[in-house]
Structures are given as structure tokens and as C-alpha cells.
Amino acid sequence: MNDRYSSAQIGLHWLTAVLVLCTIFLPYGQDLVADWLGGTGGVFTLHKSLGLTILLLTVLRLLVRSVHGAPHLLADNAVWQRRAAKAGHLVLYLLLLLMPLSGLLFGRKPVELFWLVQIDPLPLSDGARALARQFHLTAKYLLFILILGHAGIALWHHYRLRDGVLRAMLPRRN
User: Ranges for the Cytochrome b561 bacterial/Ni-hydrogenase domain (predicted)?
Assistant: First the structure.
């Protein structure tokens, strides 16, 4: 039984984590970075570009996971804990897919992917755009909670239970 995630899964996890944190930070820290990015428009160009990158990385993560699976680290835990872990991961993956899509859908202007490629907005009704925008703005709070919970539970496993769950997602030490 494998007790670690594959190197590809570990790399994709941590790359996604860093990009998610950067994406979350950008709208809140725009005063700090707007000058470097050519103004507020540049902040949101980067925010949207990172969001779409997260979408692609999440699809890739799911493909890699379908090939490599996941270690059976919680086999000795209570059924409710295993179910809670599965549910938490499912909601995290759904948000990593739906947040970028909803952000893309509510915009009326083309999205510039890293200032290189322009993606035209879809022809949606005002109601559909409003729904996508409301989902995006509301779901960010659920994402905040899940990220904090995910990190907190990983630390609880590492420091309290000492069961190797966090070590399974850390790069190997040589």
C-alpha cells in the first residue's frame, strides 16, 4: 500500500496552492501591486489569468489522480472522518473548477490571458452573468473556509495524530 502521493500530484498540489493564494490576494492587495501591473486592470488581468491556470491545473490534477489514485492514509480512521475527508476534497475540487468558470462567465469584456491571448466573453444574458457573478463572489467565502480547514486538519494530522497524512503530500527529503 502506497503511503505517499506521486511526485506529480505533490507538485501540482503545491503549485495550485500557491496560485490560489496569489489569486485570492490580488483583489484585496491591489493597492500594493497595481503600479507593477499597469493599474487595476492589470491586477484583474493577472487575477483572471491565474484563475484560468488554476482551472487547467485542477483538470490535470484530476487526470493524474485518476491514474495514480490516492494513498489509503485514513484506512484506520472512523467512517465519518473518511467521508468528511472525501466530501471536503470533492467540494475543494468543485470550487477550483467552478470559481474560474464563473469568473470567466460574468465578465462582459474579453479576458487577456497573461496579456498574450484574448478570450472573448460568451454571449450570455444579463441574468446569467449576474448569477455567475453572485456565485463567484459568494463561493470565495466557502473557498476561504475550506482552505483554512484543509490546512488546519493537515496540521492536526501532523502534530496531534502524527499519522503521516501531511508527510504524504510533502516533497521527499534526501
Answer: 4-171
> What is residue 109's DSSP assignment?
S
Task: Please tell me the pTM assigned to this model.
Answer: 0.92
Per the domain annotation, does 2 fall within a domain? no
- Predicted confidence (pLDDT) per residue in 103-115, tens digit: 999 999 999 999 9
**Bridge partners of 112?**
118
Query: 39 — phi, psi (to 5°)?
Result: 105, -175
Question: For the chain, where are the E strands, in sequence order?
Answer: 111-113, 117-119
pLDDT in tens, 76-90: 778 998 899 999 999
Whether residue 173 is contained in a domain is answered as no
Nearest Cα to 157, choosing from 90, 71, 65? 71
